[in-house]
Amino acid sequence: MTNEHLLAVAKEHGSPVYVYDSEKIIAQYNRLSNAFKKVKRVKLNYAVKALSNIAILKLINSLGAGLDTVSIQEVQLGLKAGVKPEDIIFTPNGVSLQEIEEVSALGVQINIDNLSILEQFGSKHPNTPVCIRINPHVLAGGNSKISVGHIDSKFGISIHQIPHILRIVENTNMTINGIHMHTGSDILDVEVFLYASEILFETASNFKDLDFIDFGSGFKVPYKEGDIETNIEEFGEKLTKRFNAFCKEYGKELTLGFEPGKFLVSEAGYFLAKVNVVKQTTSTVFAGIDSGFNHLIRPMFYNSHHEIVNVSNPDGRERFYSVVGYICETDTFATNRRISEITEGDIIAFKNAGAYCFSMASNYNSRYRPAEVLWYNGEAHLIRKRETFEDLTKNQVDVDLFSEVTESA
Predict the structure, then answer these.
(1) Candidates 3.20.20.10, 3.90.550.10, 2.60.40.650, 3.30.530.20; CATH matching 36-260
(2) Domain 269-393 belongs to what architecture?
(3) Was 226 annotated as part of a binding site?
(4) What is the mean pLDDT of residues 176-189?
(5) What is the arithmetic mean of pLDDT over 330-334?
(6) 311, 314, 287, 290: which is closest to 367 by C-alpha?
C-alpha cells in the first residue's frame, strides 16, 4: 500500500483506523508454503488470536489454511467464517473440561496440554482422537511474556512426564493422533527451533497412531529496516529433510503442521492516527495522537518497536518526536524517534500493526475501538465499523436502586 492509499482510507473512514493489506498476507502465506513444498502433507493453521476479524479468517482460509484457536469463541468465529470443523485445531490453556467437550462436539481437533484434562477427557471420550501439547523445555522467544516452551512455563505437558501420558493413554484406551509444541514467538535462532523439533520427534516415536506433528510457530518478522527475521527458507530446507526422514522411520506419511499468526498478518497491518497536538517542552517535542494504548498496547506491554511514518508529509525534514497517546497515564508509543516533520492534523501510520494490535484493543477510558479496513484488489473495504456510544452501554443494566436515596436527600 502507498501513502496515498493510507491517506485515502483515513479520509474516508476517519481515525484512528486499522488497515490490512491483503496482498502482503497472501505473499507471506505463499512464502511459508513454498519453504515446505518438498513435504508431501503440510497444514498451515492460522493463529486466530493474532487478528480475528471474520474477513481476515475468510481470506486466509481461501488460501488453503485452517485455523489454530484458543477459545470456543475463536472456534465459533471460524465456523461463522465458513471454515470446516476438521480444519480447526483447538489448543487452549487452563480452560474447563466443559469447554473442551463443547468444542469437541463441534467436530474440531482437540489439543490437550495437561495431564488432568487428558485423563478426564480420555475416560469420558476414549473414541475421540486428541493431540497432545508437549513442553520441550526449550527457551525461545523474543520476550519473557512470549516465551512459552521453557521449564517454568504454564503451557504444555513436560517431556519428563511422557511416562504419565503413556499410562493415561493405556488406561483409557484413547487415541493420540497428533503431537504439538510451541516454544515462543519472535524466534531468531533456527538451530534452537530445530533442537526443540528433535525432542518432538523423539516424543512422537512413543505414539503409533499419529496423523500429524504440529511445530507451532513463532517466526520472527522484521520491525524496522535491517531487523533480524527468521530465515524461513533455511528453516524449511533443514526441517523438511529431517521431517521426511522421520516419516520414513515412522513408516507413515505424517502431516507437518504450523500455526503462523504474526508471520502472516503483522507486516500487512497499518494503524493510522491523527496528530491532535504538537507540544514542545523544555526537553522534548511530543506528538500527541487521537489514540492510546487502549488501541495499540504492544509498545507499552512488550516494549515492541513499530516504525512510525508521517504519511501526510513523508518527504519532510526529519525531526525528533516522542509519540504519545491520550490515555490518562503514561502512554508512549515512541521516544525521540526520527520522523518527517509533523504538523497538527497530520496522519501518521504505525507499521507492523496486523498482529496482536486490534485483537488486544480495549475500551479503557471509555473510548471506542477503531474501525478496521481490508485493502483488497486495489480497494478499501470496511470490515468492522467504529464503535459508538451505544456499543459502550448496550450490555450495561440500568438498575433503579437509587431513587429513594435521592428523594430522601
Answers:
(1) 3.20.20.10
(2) Beta Barrel (2.40)
(3) no
(4) 80
(5) 94
(6) 290
